[in-house]
Amino acid sequence: MTVQELTHFIGGEKVSGKSGRFGDVYNPATGEVIAKVPFASRDEVKEAIDAAEAAFPAWRDMSVARRANIVMNFRNLMMENKTKLAEVICQESGKTMDDAEGEIMRGLESVDLAIGAPQLVKGEYSVNVGGNINAYSARYPLGVVTAIAPFNFPIMVPLAQTSMAVAVGNAVILKASEKVPMTALFISELWKQAGLPDGIWTVVNGDKTAVDELLENPKVHAISFVGSTPVAKIIYEVGSKHGKRVSAFGGGKNNMVVMPDADLEQVANSFVSAGYGAASQRCMAISTLVAVGEGTADRLLPLIKEKVEALKVGPASENSDYGAVISQQAKDSILAAIDKGEAEGAELVVDGRKAPITTEGKGFFIGPTLFDHVKPGMYVHENEIFGPVRNIVRTKDLDEAIQIINDHELGNGVTIFTNSGYAARQFTTEIEVGMVGVNVPIPIPVGYYNFAGFKASRFGDGHMFGPDQARFFTKTKTISERWLKESDDKEMSFAFPSN
Ligand code: NAD
């Protein structure tokens, strides 16, 4: 098998890596190296930033309608190339085809919103705020901005981070995840075909070295980061210290609260799909089912166990329910988490280490694992496990469930299943989590609503998609203007101007 050498995408061209450093890109479903990705040096990133900065003024000055048209062309090209793009995603991420196509469509919601950018960046205008003075505020693009992306959504997250940034007139640099760089390079060609001027869309590939330059270079004005919580915190601190606007999204440990009156068949289906889909490598995956009240968990367990044991794990080509995890290292840490859960006394109901997986030992597959009687403080409760290891926690009432969730460090998503409007209202009011569902498995907002968690799931005040993106990637100028007649009074006054 040939291992292709990937490039960066700078100034509208593929540019080979010059640092001499490369990373391996795997097909997680086979465990084979399929490509080498260049790791940019700081000087290479500097050159990319300079090219983006040079391209920025012409893009800023283009009419908002023409910019929106180019974003629309890009959307059309994405649809024309949907199957090819999904294949690239499957190849480098280990996802199933359904899942890859699903993430393309969800990512396109951000592009759709960006096509409407002219509506979102409209300013305000007041006449006669003082003698012959009118005032207005208007939004201007920031200049060079950057997105640093995770591996688990090779297309949806980068589109959510960048579409609006492009549409409102910035020059955008994407530092794709070094584990899934092929998707970012694929869409770079589509941006070019769509008519985006060279230099407005850049992909620099690399690791911490590339990120350090983006964090510290004074020509970069905003950073959108999505990844794990420890890295999100560093990005927020370092980026802010260097005077940048930073919005950094971290991990999740998301709960599904089940009240005794819920429809248990609906709950079981929702928990298994939202818990194990994409091998649980979703920041909004359900990690823990919190069964409320006497007997709820006991009634649910047989339903869930049967469905979990029936999950088909394997490559995209085999019509699997979920595929491989991203790397051998990820697989090892997930297996270690199962060991810790057992050692700490959680009850192992389904053991993924023993699941029959028919790939002859190839690829980074793990069977689904389920723990019952999990308690706060246990490793599997406190930590985001980015793999198919899920928990059941039992509580006596809703207050206890809310307390346990609010006490957790992370607060990305949460959902409640109930037929009681009162319980749902108490829950949505008291829960300290950014995205909340009622009788829905995964409460990811649609693209035209703002997306962000609370607590250590997000640093900074920005949202990832939704209208807030237009605010995050623009700066507001407020302009007061007066035009005098020749004959008007032009006296000098030292009083502080008041009206
Ligand atoms: P990661 O933090 O390892 O990497 C994310 C990005 O940061 C990559 O581009 C990587 O190259 C870079 N990076 C890694 N270490 C760095 C360092 N020390 N300094 C500078 N840059 C560094 O995350 P991942 O494993 O790629 O993605 C999975 C994580 O992302 C999970 O925790 C998941 O919950 C989270 N995630 C969150 C959201 C959200 O919306 N909150 C969405 C998707 C994924």
TrEMBL record:
- UniProt keyword list: NAD, Oxidoreductase
UniProt keyword Hydrolase present: no
- Is the RNA-binding keyword given for this protein? no
Enumerate the transmembrane spans: none
Enumerate the Gene Ontology biological process terms. Answer: L-valine catabolic process; thymine catabolic process
First-level EC class? oxidoreductase
Q: What residues does the Aldehyde dehydrogenase domain cover? A: 18-479
Q: Which Pfam families match?
A: Aldedh
Domain of life, per the record?
Answer: Bacteria
Q: Which GO terms describe its molecular function?
A: methylmalonate-semialdehyde dehydrogenase (acylating, NAD) activity
EC no. given is 1.2.1.27
* Gene3D superfamilies in alphabetical order: Aldehyde Dehydrogenase, Chain A, domain 1 (3.40.605.10), Aldehyde Dehydrogenase, Chain A, domain 2 (3.40.309.10)
- The protein here is known as methylmalonate-semialdehyde dehydrogenase (CoA acylating)
Q: What is the lineage of its organism?
A: Bacteria, Bacillati, Bacillota, Bacilli, Bacillales
